[in-house]
Amino acid sequence: MNTRNIYIDNIKGALIFLIVFGHFAADSVQYSSFLNSFYTFIYIFHIPLFVFISGFLSKNAEKNRDTAFTKFLGLYLFSVTGFTFFSDALYTVFSLGKDINSAFLLSKSIEILKDTLFSVFHATGAPWYLLSLIFWRILTPYLKKKRFIFIALLLAVAAGGVTEIGYTLSISRTIVFFPFYLLGYHFDTALFSRLTNTISKWARVLSAFVILAVIFLIQQNVLHLNYQMLYSFSSYQVCGYTFAKGAVIRIFIFALAVVISVCFLCLIPKREIKFTKWGSRSLNIYIWHMFLIPVVGILGSKLNLQLLSVPVVIVISLASCVILSSTFFVELTDTIRRRMNRIFSSAEFVH
User: Fold this and answer.
1) 5-23 per-position pLDDT tens digit
2) How far, in Å, CA of 234 to CA of 327, rounded?
3) For residue 127, which of 79, 195, 171 has the smallest C-alpha distance?
């Protein structure tokens, strides 16, 4: 019997589309002020809400801790090394001139292999979420008191004052987004059901109005937010802020993320729809869309689509979610997970 929560799958389906769209649209925001505003808008809340849902679905903390490595470590290593190697190799091939020589090619190959090896410790791209998820699942069983949400919030604000952590082992993002994971973990399931089952028509209208108002304020530069602050891997100093100003902006972004997330949840339907399957297979979409990011970036620069890139990115994002949620990619992901786990099991690394 299917016991999946359709509403939760719809939330995850909508969010995974926004994640894919955000990654594909990154190089196109310069061509449209509205796209730039929408891009900023989704980065305020889509990762915090996805982290919240991940925490909400991790109520069995001990079980999730024990399976954190078996579920995600192999996939993380495959994703981060595969993404780095494929991305570097693809950009190198498309940037090479006709006067290429074997010495340069050898040097570049060594550089790509070195980047691939060290990417495991320096997650600069999309795979960071898998690594952070491992950390969150390991830590949560020891943080069962609700007061740890507040402590995690303080650490998230304080992390912006440390320039050194950055990309390393995804520590910055792990710390910054951890309050949302703990909030989801501690959020009462019955309360969540009551709140989401009593959403009125007027609540949906108000939510849509708030979302449009936020996008409008961003477009009018009333809400001028630094991309790096939204990405959460850079310190306040790197973003051009003092610690005090950066801390205030981070708290404001967190508060705005909560408001938008509530509005977003009000607009998500509870019946089964087209992107319900995307939510039930969001991990597969997340992993495999990474390999399309450099392809989309290169095509955009080569074809010079400019404003046409907006509808093109939308179509590619939709097609990616449809294709990557297919049974083929589900089975491929499971196969890679099993084979990677077999390697670690033989070394008694995971259990």
Assistant:
1) 999 999 999 999 999 999 9
2) 37
3) 79
